[in-house]
Amino acid sequence: MARRADRYGLYQKSVQSPDHEVTFFRRVFKTTYGRLPKLLREDFCGAGAVSCEWARSHRDRHAIGVDIDPVPLAWGREHNWSKLSAAARARVDLRCGDARRVTGPKADLVAAQNFSFQCFKTRPELKRYFKAAHGNLARQGLLFLDLMGGAELLEDDRPDEVKSFRGYKYVWEQKRFDPITHDCEFFIHFRFPDGSALEKAFHYQWRLWTVPEIRELLLEAGFRRADVYWEDTDRRTGKGNDTYRRRERAESDAAWICYIVAVKESPRAS
Q1: One domain, residues 144 and 183
Q2: Does the pLDDT of residue 269 top 80, yes or no?
Q3: 219 near 42, Cβ under 8 Å?
């Protein structure tokens, strides 16, 4: 089963929710600027799932997806882009290159999802990316970042997180955390009922940035403000419910995920 498995397909099924991202982007932009966004730029887009969903969701929406790795881009063209209507395909531009250097039309939204920007491990490197994102936005534009944290992430060799899906298990391995540098290492594995596995299907070496660090760097890069959208808790389960609201304070949690939304130009009303 592992030999026949498609790691990018398994990743999209296990990790990504493009329809949720599109709905959230639209809601926050409309709340911020009082109008609907049209052009999305998806940095570190991988297979471009969010870009394709953005164009598919409305005939007025266009997307640019940028990734430095040609392999997932090629997979995305075959499995995501090709499945769109002809009209929607014409509204999606998938580009191979460094997100800090690839320019294009000024976007209403720039999204850097799945913690991807944490590949930049120093303040100058990350600030350079934030300045590039600022330059790729229209005058009224938003940069969307997701971030994870909590005490559970500050451990070496933490027990794996396992989620069961039909026909396989998704395994998130937290391998290493350095408290001095905040360097961290993670793996994604896929395991199958016949005992076979795709071990280390994906490998991440990031710096675990904190919310205050990210917000400060965004302001230094030229954004007017950086808002935090914190996940609500389901009262029945005590777990996150995928609903994110703007917060100034939050309760400590052992593991959390939030969005940071950087505003290029504050609306006049605020």
Answers
A1: no
A2: no
A3: no
